[in-house]
Amino acid sequence: MLSSESRRKDFPSLENKVYLNSAAESIPPVAVHEALETYWRDKSMGMKGRDFHFSELEKCREVAAGMLKRTPEEVAFCSCSSEAYNLLASALQLNAADEVVISDLDFPAGATPWISSPDGPSVRLWENDDGVLELDRLIGLLSEKTKLVQVSLVSFLNGYRIPWASFRDRVRERAPNAILSVDVTQCFGRVELDCLDADCLISSTHKWILGIHGGCVVSVSEKSAARLTTHAGGWFHIKNAFDNDRFETADPVSGAASFAVGMPNFPAIYALRAGMDYLNGVGIDKIASHADPIVAELHSQLKVLGIKTMTPFQSDNPAGIVAFQHERDEEISEALLAEDIHVMRQAGRLRVAVHGYNQMSDIDNLVTILKKWA
């Protein structure tokens, strides 16, 4: 991943391509393809294949737990972050007397469950200032009524990364009753996570962690398991799913396991373990050390071109996303694609994402095109 040789071997589809869109879709390594073929062979065994499916599920749980520095019992999987957040809402069962804090840099999946409920909590919006979530603005939104503070460690919109320790301390001090939930989709697999003491961690699997669609990692700390046990229907998470009283009561397992309400999406599980094993083999610290200077160079080059990014450069709190707005963003996007340079164009912005398989030359190629619109 970090050298030209391993990149060609492990990511052959990247040959002669500048791919800077991992925040939307990552390019999985060959190992993920091989894992999906293994799933197919196991599935072809019929019912006996389930022995291998569930064995893979437990191995995947152990790998994810290791990366999150938690126990396997504190980790589960569902189908996507939207499902995870709706299950979180089911667990909390908030009402009009409660308050929730969300930010305007969050992805819709983490924000809409609290807005959508007609009898739900009062939602307080932490608004950014020029791309930055200022902690002074947060303080006035917190109180003993606050039952949930939901944030993304790294924003999908502009790449802003929350300074975790100071943010966490303010929440714990001002809102002692609040669950602290963090979407780590835009950083898990790319940066060394510093938010592992949150009550709940949620991550999609088809982005930086090199998996495929149909998966989501959910981690609930043991100390928060009683509060974060879902009340959703299902069977996989129900203790008495096939007992004689199953039509009278539903008794869910507690904590993270309650988020796995149905049969796991085993192809996504096979792919996820392969992706995480690959990342562990490289080392998240080495990925960050390789990719962070590329991000810094992009910030520097954009500044030379007079293009203002949507968030300041965070040298002491790095992430993998750089976003900027330009009145001719559609023309720029088309020109980049014509040269097989891939970035995200959405909501009036261009978003560049730098992963471990990117190289400094990718930025040089990008900037060569951007100079025409400087």
Structure explained in plain terms:
The protein is of the alpha/beta class and 374 residues long. The protein has two domains: 4-20 and 283-373, Alpha-Beta Complex (Aspartate Aminotransferase, domain 1); 33-280, Type I PLP-dependent aspartate aminotransferase-like (Major domain) (Aspartate Aminotransferase, domain 2), CATH 3.40.640. The protein is built from eleven helices and twelve strands. The strands form three sheets. It has a seven-stranded mixed beta sheet with strand order 2-8-7-6-5-3-4, with helices on both faces. A three-stranded antiparallel beta sheet has the order 9-12-11, covered by helices on one side. Helix 2 packs antiparallel against helix 8 and helix 3 (49-68) crosses helix 8 (266-282). The chain is globular. The model has no long low-confidence stretch (mean pLDDT 96).
Enumerate how many helices there are, as a single number.
Answer: 11
Shape: globular
Can you identify the CATH class of the largest domain?
A: Alpha Beta
| DSSP summary, beta strand count | 12
Radius of gyration, Cα only, in angstroms? 21 Å
Secondary-structure content class: alpha/beta
Estimate what percentage of residues fall within beta strands: 5-15%
Give the spatial strand order of the biggest sheet: 2-8-7-6-5-3-4
How is the CATH topology of the largest domain named? Aspartate Aminotransferase, domain 2
Q: How many structural domains can be distinguished in the coordinates?
A: 2
Give a topology summary.
Layout: H1 4-10, E1 18-19, H2 30-43, H3 49-68, E2 75-78, H4 81-92, E3 99-103, H5 108-116, E4 122-126, H6 135-139, E5 146-152, H7 164-174, E6 179-183, E7 200-204, E8 216-220, H8 266-282, H9 284-305, E9 321-324, H10 329-338, E10 341-342, E11 344-346, E12 349-353, H11 360-370
Parallel strand pairs: 1-10, 3-4, 3-5, 5-6, 6-7
Antiparallel strand pairs: 2-8, 7-8, 9-12, 11-12
